[in-house]
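Same chain as my last thread, 330 residues:
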Amino acid sequence: MSGQPRIKLGVTLYSLQDEYAWGKLTLKGCLAELQKMGAEWVELLGDQMIHNSPFPEESFYLEWLSWLDKYRLTPVCDDIFINTTLYKNRRLTTKEGIAALQAEITHAHKMGFKIVRLVSMTPSNIILPCLDFAGKHDMQMALEIHAGHGIDAPYTQEYIELMTKADSPYIGLVFDMGLFCRKYPRVIREYYRHEGAAPALLDFVDRVFLSGTDLRSQADKSKLEEYMRSPIDEEYWEYVTHFENNPLEIMPPFLRYVKNIHGKFYEMTDENNEFSIPYVQIIDLLKANHYNGFICSEYEGNRFVPSGVEVQGVDQLTRHQKMLRSLIRQ
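reply #2:
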């Protein structure tokens, strides 16, 4: 890697949502933990951790910037949501959506971010009307390509067409590495086993992913009656059909548009490898294609810890960061 542009490592505070929600860590405490694990960049979901986001008290911004300085962190990406179903009886109008996106851009700019992550299915008709506004705030708008809402999804294709035609530095993508699950996450399997899911169903799902494919094409449950024994089986099936096991080759054609990568992970093993996602091959591919953007560790195994068991978010993040740092340096 000597002489080559370096991939930049960060952490999304989504990973510490459990610790935050239970009062074990404050927002400031989360930033302190990032410094301890050697992270340099921070990503945030404002809706999760900032009161009245995107309209906090003005004093918050000074406090936030002082914390970043204290813990030597640089803000990279603000994960935003345009709440199109805010009202019970209608969706937001285009005008309302534009106003909401501009408010988020203004807020992110005040916090020092350079990227706003647009959640999958953000209406594409609000992007171009905000392009000049984003440029004036030096803000890149990037749609997340996420499992269940992947490259082939119609709304993703619509956004990609818009992005390539606009060819603007202020419109791009966030790639989520959950697109590349080679094995179905063990922590999810074990969580549903604990909840009573049928062993035959759990084994069937594992076999499909190990065979090199996924279950998006098998959404018809009628062909799987032998596996469906209870409502928990139905719930598990609904969940697994949104996971993707794509070839890594789908990524390079889009890397010129990628502003940030979500380093999704569910479980760091005792050998300090991610159980489901092939990070050795991912980092090799990124280096071979001269990617020098961001990868932000995103721990999602916290959603599948049995009741009464403490979530080990800080430890899992620390080990994921260590793994990425080692792979990047090789």
